[in-house]
Fold this sequence. Notes:
Largest sheet: 5 strands, parallel
Protein name: tRNA 2-selenouridine synthase
Helix content: 55-70%
Organism: Clostridium gasigenes
Order of helices and strands: EHEHEHHHEHEHEHHHEEEHEHHHHHEH
Domain Rhodanese: 13-137
GO biological process, one term: tRNA wobble uridine modification
CATH architecture of the largest domain: 3-Layer(aba) Sandwich
Oligomer: single chain
Keywords: Selenium
Amino acid sequence: MTFKTTSDFKNIVLEDIPLIDVRAPIEFKKGAFINSINLPIMNDEERHLVGICYKEKGNHDAVKLGHELVSGNIKDERIKSWESFITKNPKSMIYCFRGGSRSSISQEWIEKYAGKEIVKLEGGYKAFRNYLIDELDAEVQSSKPIVLAGFTGTGKTILLNELENSIDLEGLANHRGSTFGRHTTPQPTQINFENALACKLIKHRAKGYSHIILEDEGGNVGLNFIPKPLAAYFNAGDLVVLEAPVEERINLTLQEYVINSQSEYIAHYCDEALGLQEWFNYMSNSIIRVKKRLGLERFTQIYTYFEKAYANQLKTGIYDFHQDWIKLFLTDYYDPMYKHQLDTTTKNILFRGNNSDVLEYLKSLK
């Protein structure tokens, strides 16, 4: 019996093909692909036992043990989970680590017992991962990078997401890229960040854009880092500087880091009081972490304003009190750093302007 296979990884990315990952959950958590779901042929314990058997007795006995462990109702349930996913996603494909026994057996069972065909990835996870790593090479990029810069609170990420030819690195890393950048949900593993970034670059290149617009992130976003050659390629791009009055920046920061962030914490903990307290704890610790860089006097002033603002918010339900500490943090901490960077940069500044002017300019750079 001949089963279908493919190594057309580019098409998988461009067509957003759903993928069934039949590796064990412990493998999936370390790294997987976008549009993939973990429906393992063996769970972690079963895989562990088969691995021991393979080392002690060889492949034949290991395969035999695997069939014994995954049989009867266990086997039926796993086939049903694959069948259900394929029914909902008819273009689905399947993979294991190297495209060997696990995906081959799964593919055979799906056709034999579920009556459905599914394509297997040649070389499995490892081959697809290597393809994506190659696509992160700076030398294969064809678009000219443009770096969107500007003081904190100007709304760079909001503007970036209005452009078709941009890549939101902060979105991929699930981090705002600042002192208070962490979300309630964890950042992706480094492998998953790289896989997602590679897919974005492949799609961007397939559309033939001459420019790629990115924020000025340096080499990392939170705990995720951009491969050094690619980061250097991005950072070598010319600058476009987004400008906004300080009052507008305060309001944007208030909306994102206080109002929206508190709502995120409340939703995450499913409890308003607990969510607000966890938000306060995180923000408080974040301010304390930069105490040395702020200096004792500025730190004390900012932290005092922060505590008073939070207490007033709990009492009155009004967020406006947070504007005081936000203004100090922007003007006394972030602004001097960004001003120094812009004053000393050797990069070419292509354009400066407000939100509407910068958006119009960047949209002209396809």
